[in-house]
Design goal:
Blueprint (H helix, E strand, L loop, with lengths): L2 E3 L3 E6 L3 H10 L6 E6 L8 H8 L3 E5 L5 H13 L5 E6 L5 H10 L3 E4 L6 H17 L7 E7 L6 H12 L14 E5 L7 H4 L7 H6 L7 H7 L1 E3 L4 E3 L13 H14 L2 E5 L8 H7 L2 E6 L3 H17 L5 E6 L9 H9 L6 E3 L3 H10 L3 H4 L4 H16 L9
Helix pairs in contact: 1-5, 6-16, 9-10, 10-11
This protein binds adenosine-5'-diphosphate and magnesium ion.
Magnesium ion (MG) binds next to helix 6.
Length: 401
């Protein structure tokens, strides 16, 4: 399957002491999203290439004797070149005098960890910095926009909209390098019938099962570890392979999950289940916008109206957009379009043409429409939807679509 995992935290260990190297390696051994590399020399004998390398890592760990002037000089040199979010951890004797610890911190060290250590103390000490590295890489206190996608009826195309909206929000400035400029997550909360994984050729993931089998509250670290990444750069949390009752996950967990997701991404697109379980409420109250995918038939319009009333009951200020799928924008609204627009108190602004050939190709290849049918009217319609959606969101650090 064409999947690579979400970005890991890179850690550079600088030490010529095998005891230190072993301890750090053991402390980080069970962590799936950590990439550890080692520079086998003392911090005071670093060359320019190693200093450069340090600048490219999220966390730099080194053993130091703070009484050694050369060490302090070397740490200052590292500090001068450090990456914007990088974290410096120094391992030093437990009984280090305060003044020396201060000198280390003045030189740019973020934390002094006592060494030697017993048991998993080092692992515990590093945990907080690993969390921090994940948080700052995703932009510190910044928050992304949350867009939830609901369906007026089964099979209307909600998952198609969710997946391709997420894809088009990525923005690839250079279409040859395919480097996404925004970080976008697509999350499949259609726990029982979710197909986001199939649409993107991603295996079912166990993250949501994990939430269902305990009271675990998913923080940013959990999010970083539980999402996979497509080759196109989309972060994905797919639904579990095994059947699970919708109530197995609780509202508090979903609330925490959405919060953690938005901290780690510019955009979070959520594919909702058809059922109105109680944890829909935290999704809705956290959402910047809900898209209801519908058509203009009477049953769909009625279902859309019911959904809108349900969402608005507790969130009167919520922005709800209706997306009409399987119909290209008409030159003029017919009588039944006008009646539907009246019932839904909206002007229909988003239309996606019926295009079974492109839709089928995307599903068959497990790729977004932008890749399998870039010039189709359906892809263009989804691009327009992404631009219009992005325009309504506060900009933050996002790249405009
Ligand atoms: N605009 C469209 N034209 C043709 N087929 C579509 C269109 N949108 C979705 N489909 C197809 O309809 C089927 C159901 O879509 P899906 O997104 O899974 O719906 P939902 O999530 O609402 O159940 C899929 O096979 C999909 O490829
Ligand atoms: Mg679906």
């Amino acid at each position: 399957m064409g999947v690579s995992m979400a970005k890991s935290t890179s850690i550079l260990l600088i030490s010529d002491d095998s005891g230190v190297s072993n301890a750090v390696t053991v402390a980080l051994s069970d962590r799936p999203r950590v990439k550890l590399s080692a520079e086998n020399r003392s911090v005071s004998s670093l060359n320019g290439a190693a200093v450069q390398m340090a600048a490219e890592n999220d966390i730099v760990v080194f053993a130091t004797d703070p009484g050694n002037k050369d060490d302090l000089t070397a740490i200052r040199a590292l500090n001068a070149e450090r990456g914007e979010h990088s974290i410096f951890l120094a391992l030093a004797d437990r009984d280090i005098p305060l003044a020396r610890a201060r000198a280390l911190s003045d030189a740019g060290v973020d934390d002094v960890l006592p060494f030697p250590v017993t048991g998993d103390e080092l692992g515990r000490q590093m945990e907080k910095w690993l969390q921090k590295a994940v948080g700052s890489r995703s932009g510190g206190g910044k928050e992304g926009a949350v867009i939830a996608v609901a369906q007026a009826r089964g099979g209307i195309g909600a998952t198609t909209v969710a997946v391709n909206l997420a894809d088009q929000l990525l923005v690839r400035k250079n279409r040859f390098r395919k480097q996404p400029s925004n970080s976008v997550a697509i999350v499949d909360l259609d726990l029982q019938f979710g197909a986001v994984g199939d649409f993107l050729d991603i295996d079912p993931q166990e993250g949501l099962t994990q939430l269902a089998t305990g009271d675990l509250l998913p923080d940013e670290m959990w999010v970083e570890q539980s999402l996979a990444e497509t080759q196109g750069g989309l972060s994905v949390l797919s639904a579990p392979a095994d059947f699970m009752p919708l109530e197995a996950i609780n509202a508090k967990q979903i609330d925490t999950l959405v919060d953690a997701l938005r901290k780690a991404h510019d955009y979070v697109v959520i594919d909702l289940p058809r059922a109105l379980v109680d944890w829909i409420e935290p999704v809705v109250s956290n959402a910047d916008e809900i898209l209801v995918v519908s058509d203009t038939s009477v049953p769909s319009v009625r279902a859309t109206r019911r959904l809108m009333d349900f969402y608005l009951a507790d969130n009167p200020g919520l922005n709800i957009e209706v997306v009409i799928n399987h119909e290209k924008r008409p030159m003029m609204l017919s009588a039944h379009h006008k009646e539907a627009a009246r019932v839904l108190e909206t002007k229909f602004e988003h239309w996606l043409p019926h295009d079974p050939k492109s839709a089928r190709a995307a599903v068959d290849f497990g790729k977004p429409l932008s890749e399998v049918a870039p010039r189709s009217d359906l892809t263009k319609g989804l691009g327009n939807l992404a631009r219009a959606t992005a325009k309504r969101m506060p900009m933050g650090d996002r790249v405009s679509v």
